[in-house]
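dude i think i finally got it to work??
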Amino acid sequence: MNAMLAAWPPLFLGALCAAVATFAYWTLPTTVPTALFGFGGVAFAADARARRADFRRARDRIASAASRSDSVLVRELTQLYQQHKRSWCQRTSLIWAAAAALGPAGSRFVRRGFRKHGYQWWHITPDGTFSRHCPFFKISFWWALFGLPEERRRV
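look at this
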């Protein structure tokens, strides 16, 4: 169940894109909006798959670190913060991974960590979206989204 909750942001956004694409198909005379929103639905479906993979890797790393010592757990969570802070979907997957590995206290700990770093509930778009460093213009973003698991690990 936690794996599905970890991927709910891209699943919701993908369903929204699919609904808008369907509406555009039946109401607009051109196919451009339908194609754009259809591509958005496919991209969000790929993102949901990537977030579930992130969830599993983070859950396993947290559980492994928790079984060793508190200092190892803190170091592992710090590394995971850095890897998952860039987007709402990544932060959500880490929050649910901590909940799966450590229980509700782990989820609260990770949420507090993100708030401490300045992230609030309204930070939905990836970091740098509205700057010249927009992640959507980088090939590494698209490899992480659509690439093979080995390529996603390298990004």
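The first helix runs from residue 2 to 6.
im so relieved honestly
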